[in-house]
Write a structure and sequence with these properties.
The chain has two helices and two strands, in the order αββα. It is mainly alpha-helical.
């Protein structure tokens, strides 16, 4: 009787583990689909942001009325909603200073 009970517990443990494996495989597939959708959304957002970036720079002009070169400037958004156009040199300089402080 003890051996029979032991075999029954072992069989129940195996069945529970098999059920867990099936549940985890289903969860894995669901997560893969969700990851794929998120990756697509990120890609679409990056494309939209890139288009917006180019649209903004196509409309910007310097003091002499010449187009602003997007390779020399970056768009910086402040935490309060303000937007600045900053020269690349200032961004690189501040990043170097931030790295040396760390």
């Amino acid at each position: 009787v003890a051996a029979q009970n032991c075999r029954k517990r072992k069989l129940n443990a195996i069945l529970n583990l098999e059920e867990d494996v099936c549940n985890l495989q289903t969860q894995k597939e669901t997560l893969k689909k969700e990851h794929s959708k998120c990756s697509q959304s990120i890609s679409q957002i990056k494309q939209k942001l890139n288009k917006l970036y180019h649209e903004i720079f196509s409309r910007l002009r310097d003091d002499q009325g010449r187009p602003v070169n997007p390779h020399h400037y970056v768009i910086h958004c402040g935490s309060n909603g303000s937007v600045f156009i900053i020269p690349n040199q200032l961004v690189k300089f501040s990043q170097k200073q931030g790295n040396t402080k760390e």
